[in-house]
Specification:
Blueprint: E1 6-11, H1 17-30, E2 35-39, H2 45-55, H3 64-88, E3 92-96, H4 99-109, H5 115-124, E4 131-136, H6 139-144, H7 159-175, E5 180-184, H8 189-210
Parallel strand pairs: 1-3, 1-4, 2-3, 4-5
């Protein structure tokens, strides 16, 4: 049985991930592609409980390393309980954030450095996305798109934190090779959707079209 394709969606807060994920779901449905849509932190019962701890605004005293390890713990469960079994059944997986988020947010945003990559290396056991869409948007613009009334614990951080996260994403993308697909998220919603759809056409049907 052919293994499914693993796709992750990344981007700074306010980059439009949620909107584009809804369109990606439509794409998979319209093209009869069997996929599981999931998110991080979360994706499993255990992961969702960890998510609530991480993002809870009451947990303001959480140390950066604690935060990083909680993300990795949720990811370890996610990979083994959901992602790997799904891919091995020949189904595709589309994940809202994955390891790259931890590198950007905790490695660069929290300034924890290389230890975040080491922790997550154990968490994922070598399982990385086949393709990663990065919705590229200036963090100042992205934060302006989100109502401050709905900020979670990380979204409440200062702009300087989110600027470090963004710079971290750019470095991760630079080092990530051909896995990354950069999308200019400053364009209109329809333009972003069309660009993502074109890449999905290439990923799933490019070989057929070229044949």
């Amino acid at each position: 049985m052919k293994r499914g394709i693993f796709i992750s969606i990344e981007g700074s807060d306010g980059s439009g991930k949620s909107t584009q994920l809804s369109y990606i779901k439509e794409y998979f449905r319209d093209h009869n592609l069997d996929a599981v849509f999931t998110r991080e932190p979360g994706g499993t019962a255990i992961g969702e409980k960890i998510r609530n701890i991480i993002l809870d605004n009451e947990n303001s005293e959480m140390f950066p390393l604690t935060e990083a390890m909680l993300y990795a713990a949720a990811r370890a469960q996610h990979v083994r309980e959901l992602i790997v079994p799904t891919l091995e059944k020949g189904r595709h997986v589309v994940c809202d954030r994955f390891v790259d988020s931890s590198i950007a947010y905790q490695g660069y945003g929290r300034e924890l450095g290389d230890c975040v990559g080491v922790i997550n290396g154990f968490a994922v056991g070598g399982r990385m996305p086949d393709f990663t869409f990065f919705l590229d948007l200036d963090p100042a613009v992205g934060r302006g798109r989100i109502s401050s009334a709905h900020f979670d614990r990380l979204e409440k951080e200062k702009l300087s934190f989110h600027q470090r996260v963004y710079e971290g994403y750019l470095k991760v993308m630079e080092e990530g090779g051909g896995r990354f697909i950069r999308i200019d998220a400053s364009k209109s919603v329809e333009e972003v959707r069309s660009e993502i759809y074109a890449h999905l056409d290439r990923i799933f049907f490019g070989e057929r079209e070229n044949g």
